[in-house]
Amino acid sequence: MATLLRSKLSNVATSVSNKSQAKMSGMFARMGFQAATDEEAVGFAHCDDLDMEHRQGLQMDILKSEGSEEGGEQPLEGDIHYQRDGTGPLPPSASKDAGVCSELSGQGKPKITAWEAGWNVTNAIQGMFVLGLPYAILHGGYLGLFLIIFAAVVCCYTGKILIACLYEENEDGEIVRVRDSYVDIANACCAPRFPTLGGRIVNVAQIIELVMTCILYVVVSGNLMYNSFPNLPVSQKSWSIIATAVLLPCAFLKNLKAVSKFSLLCTLAHFVINILVIAYCLSRARDWAWDKVKFYIDVKKFPISIGIIVFSYTSQIFLPSLEGNMQNPKEFHCMMNWTHIAACILKGLFALVAYLTWADETKEVITDNLPSTIRAVVNIFLVAKALLSYPLPFFAAVEVLERSLFQDGNRAFFPTCYGGDGRLKSWGLTLRCALVVFTLLMAIYVPHFALLMGLTGSLTGAGLCFLLPSLFHLKLLWRKLLWHHVFFDVAIFVIGGICSISGFIHSLEGLIEAFRTNAED
């Protein structure tokens, strides 16, 4: 009897402990998700969400495996392939978390409100790359302002139709969610002939965008430090090397918990910097050069501006995950409307007043135009933000690469880069360090913020925000679309394709010319 009583007390204590841990884990997972959406693309917000989905996917795998063990089935060993529906085999290291995971799997994912989702989208499309928008007005005039509005409308629309592709009508006539991610949508469009081709294309585009974002952070860090301290005998390339030395520990990251603590502070600091820039511009309102803003375009450089503007709106890659985590997904459309309207107004005002202040002297990074007395302080804050933001796209790129090449079960191209104890193998760490060094080399040989941003926006930004959503919408839902939806989708695909090709060609030409110049020097 004493043994039985002691056993029951032990079980109760374990249950209470597991519930407490589960609640805390759920709270931190929710905080981690929100913090991870601090930056642009993709891409950046996807990082902690991948980590959270992976952990909660393992929890579902544990429950499935426990049920299968009772029925006589044994999970496959050595396979760490993960599937969201819980059908994937159980990782060997997952059983130690069974108690906590069981409790969490009953709770489901922590849901977020429409306001929290809007904050995430706002962080993604109002990042520090807004600093390049005045340079786009320099080469586009009023047409550049129109393009800021047009890009907001189109990206809002394509975000909505991308989410529509997640749903289908079941036998009872109910609209149900049958897909979970951008990759699932792409694979559905290419099935049955090429069931994985679409997902691979999306993954490649995502990796390119994430790596290019990392390169841009190194470029902007070197540029800002060089222009903040021009009297020091340190070149922009040297500042980029110093920045990369600070970023090298990113190769050892296992998750973004440590970094995510600073993300909210970084976002608030960036908004303060934008306000300071606008306040300085307003203080010089009497000297604004309205006559410099004209209805003209620089044929050679304006296509680059298109890529810059498009890149500043990229958020589609994480919208399926965001919508799936909302308490009321029906509020998604309203949330997209007010976030993009707010972004359009703020970006347009920021770009216009900054250009009016400096006119033809507007530089690629607008803070370089500030007086030396305040430029150094503002730029140091921006460099700190860039360095703290770098781990987000870097970690997301590493996650995608590892899942695609090293951890995709029997379909992996290479053996797993993790040992049996879960530790990263030495050659896996070497590959991560090589990725950091690659971003440095690109930043050294092509230290042009506007060209790199334009190239990325024209290549992956236009593809992920304009071309693919409209194409997928037509492919999956064309039988149910009204004529004006078909017209909008075709128009966006055609216009987006023209802008993408034009911007890519001109950006690539500029990069090749810059690369040759640097090679000669």
Automatic annotation (TrEMBL):
Q: Name one GO cellular component term.
A: vacuolar membrane
Q: Which UniProt keywords apply?
A: Cell projection, Cytoplasmic vesicle, Membrane, Neurotransmitter transport, Synapse, Transmembrane, Transmembrane helix, Transport
The membrane topology of this protein is:
Multi-pass membrane protein
Annotated stretches, region: Disordered: 67-99
Superkingdom assignment:
Eukaryota
Q: Which family does it belong to?
A: Belongs to the amino acid/polyamine transporter 2 family.
In Swiss-Prot or TrEMBL terms, this protein is called Vesicular inhibitory amino acid transporter
| Record gene name | Slc32a1_0
